[in-house]
Specification:
The protein is an alpha/beta fold. The chain contains 24 helices and 26 strands. α22 crosses α23. It is elongated.
Length: 654
């Protein structure tokens, strides 16, 4: 008999036995005593001596004593129970051999049809078959292998819900259930407490693994320290105090280890995912989908793919604006010829945004600005600012820098420091781009260099949710067909930027300048701007279309030939005027005192140019061709309200 006791005590570990009977041990091998009621753990095990002790009620002893006490049976019966549970051969005629786990599991898998346990837990026949679930007929227990390798398992009694695991000598240390999935999956992996909960999630089509008890969080921590997971971990532990506490502890460590993770309550109002599977499977599936989408979004990069349905369901924030409808978050270029007043405009933009005031007629979002005035001195910068402010105090949200490192040698690192020091900085202006460009590589083309640098700047702006506006120059050669072709450098500069502004003049001494705008988030448009030399501010004179229309109207009204035609009709309102181009040229000189430079043919083209506007002014032009071309101009008489043709002599008064 003594031999039976020794065999059992030498082959069964106290920590495994107390766990078998529901005692949850923490990292210090302490837990709540099963022999008396308590809220603070006073029960502990000593793995070296294989002894349990409760400092609350005084209970102590080995594995046999623990089972004898908790089951209220004789020590010999307790020893036999443990021998049977842990497959210890106590037949003195036979030497104990190593338990064949794989053969045991195959027998249980073959017998799985003799229980409805898994069906009662909401698992389908397909899930049972796919994950090699089994049934121990002798112990009347459901058997759950930890992997398809069939090297470790746990059993759950279908009678009293108790469970046990194989001996360490036979199976080695307990692994995490389906733990290898976190190294294989590219999709987020759900981390739960029990294998049943993991199987419930896996049945819904999502990868999952189980700690097999909150006391095993250190196993997961050790595993991710040894090898970093390829997947984001979604912590979905039980909705109880122990689960929430373990989740918080695990999240803290994962954060410190820089392991991607998220925390999600996929069980809703239920205790765990399996309970929700039984209660409302569609809701569990929705919760899992939401949690997975949130985890992917949390760590998503531009390199990660996403489906059209995910995009459709995602609440995507609209573009944020520094200047409404004009300057959104991202990378922007403002290009203009040298000495046109770009720096005045950039300083004006900074002051307007810092105050939340309008800029060129557009509303701004109030925020702080960082202006790299790399071509200016403090004296010049102060002089400009004082002229603009006219005695007012400068807004506190404008920051200046007069020097900067190259893009490939510290520039963006310095910007990060500035943003950390002043988190409200949302607009960064760099005047000019050329001042921060990196050293060109002889192995790269100009296009490649431009696109690489601009691509880095765009990614940086997008990542930090800021607007970076670079001032740049135009080529000296004009291109009236497309002003954007005048941007100095390759087409990659414009291609990589989110928003591009070009300020141009037809002649350098023109007062009006056209500001053309285009971009991914703005409509292509143009406005006419002018620098007010008295207020030292750029002002909007109107859209390019409005200004052009006004200019054309003024040209028409001031045209000598138009003035002459109107005067000739005024002199003869009934018959109008008729004559040749040469006669019209003479009339122009007689009436306006100006000599038309055009030939007779040129006069015809000039009339054609103004013919539409003349018609709008109720003047009709016709040409008669005989031996010579004769031009006729008559007043157009419109139909009156009573249907008769009115003349210029008809009076509005009766």
């Amino acid at each position: 008999m003594a031999d039976i006791f020794e065999k059992v005590k030498n082959n069964v570990h106290i920590a495994e036995v107390v766990s078998l009977f529901g005692v949850q041990l923490n990292g210090n091998d302490k837990g709540l005593c099963p022999f008396h009621s308590e809220k603070t753990p006073s029960f502990s095990v000593d793995r070296k001596t294989n002894i349990f002790t409760c400092f609350g009620c005084g209970a102590t002893g080995d594995v046999i004593a623990f089972v004898s006490k908790i089951k209220n049976i004789e020590p010999i019966d307790a020893a036999k129970f443990l021998a049977e549970t842990y497959h210890i051969d106590i037949d003195e005629g036979n030497k104990p051999g190593k338990f064949d786990i794989k053969a045991y599991l195959k027998k249980c898998i073959a017998d799985v049809g003799q229980t409805d346990y898994f069906k009662r837990r909401g698992l389908t026949a397909a899930t049972v078959k796919k994950y090699c679930l089994g049934y121990d007929v002798y112990h009347r227990s459901a058997v759950i292998p930890y992997s398809s390798a069939l090297t470790y398992y746990q059993t759950r009694s279908v009678v009293d819900k108790k469970f046990y695991k194989p001996k360490t000598e036979d199976a080695g240390a307990e692994p995490l259930f389906n733990g290898e999935i976190m190294y294989k999956s590219k999709s987020p992996v759900f981390v739960v407490e029990s294998p049943i909960c993991a199987l419930s999630i896996m049945q819904c089509g999502h990868p999952a693994m189980a700690l097999c008890g909150v006391g095993n969080i250190n196993k997961l921590i050790h595993a991710v320290k040894v090898k970093k997971p390829s997947a984001t971990l979604i912590l979905a532990l039980d909705n109880d105090d122990a689960g929430r506490k373990a989740s918080t502890e695990l999240a803290t460590v994962l954060f410190e280890l820089n392991i991607p993770y998220d925390v999600s309550n996929v069980a809703g109002e239920c205790k765990d995912p399996n309970e929700l599977l039984l209660k409302d499977k569609p809701q569990l599936e929705r919760n899992l989908k939401v949690a997975k989408t949130a985890a992917k979004k949390k760590y998503a990069t531009a390199k990660d793919s996403f489906t059209a349905s995910e995009l459709q369901d995602e609440d995507v924030a609209p573009p944020t604006w520094i200047v409404d409808g004009m300057l959104p978050t991202g990378l922007a270029l403002l290009c203009a010829p040298s000495k046109l007043g770009k720096s005045w405009m950039m300083l004006q933009l900074c002051l307007a945004v810092a105050e939340g005031a309008e800029f060129l007629g557009y509303a701004t979002k109030k925020c702080e600005c960082l202006y790299y005035a790399l071509e200016d001195s403090k004296a010049r910068l102060k002089d400009r600012m004082q002229k603009m402010l006219k005695g007012k105090r400068a807004p506190s949200g404008v920051h200046f820098a007069l020097d900067a490192d190259p893009i490939d040698h510290g520039f963006m690192e310095k910007v990060v420091e500035e943003i950390k020091a002043y988190p409200n900085i949302k607009l960064i202006i760099i005047d000019t781009l050329q001042k921060v460009r990196g050293k060109p590589s002889s192995k790269e083309s100009m296009y490649s260099i431009d696109y690489r640098e601009m691509g880095e700047l765009k990614r940086f702006a997008d990542k930090n949710h800021i607007t970076m506006l670079f001032v740049h120059h135009l080529r000296k050669m004009a291109d009236e067909s497309d002003v954007y072709n005048m941007i100095s450098g390759s087409t990659a500069l414009m291609g990589a930027a989110d928003t591009v502004f070009v300020i141009s003049k037809k002649k350098r001494n023109d007062e009006d300048a056209t500001m053309s705008m285009t971009g991914r988030d703005i409509e292509q448009s143009s406005i006419v701007v002018q620098f007010n030399k008295y207020d030292y501010l750029w002002e909007v004179r109107g859209t390019a279309e409005e200004i052009e229309a006004k200019k054309e109207r003024q040209e028409y009204e001031n045209s000598p030939i138009v003035i002459t035609i109107k005067e000739l009709i005024q002199r003869n309102p009934m018959g109008g005027w008729k004559g040749s181009a040469a006669e019209l040229m003479k009339a122009v000189y007689d009436i306006t005192g100006k000599q038309l430079a055009e030939s007779a043919t040129g006069v015809g083209k000039l009339i054609s140019k103004y013919e539409y506007r003349l018609h709008c002014d109720d003047i009709e032009h016709t040409v008669t061709r005989s031996s010579a071309r004769t031009h006729t101009f008559k007043r157009i008489v419109r139909n009156g309200a009573f249907g008769y043709q009115r003349t210029i002599y008809d009076s509005d008064d009766e």
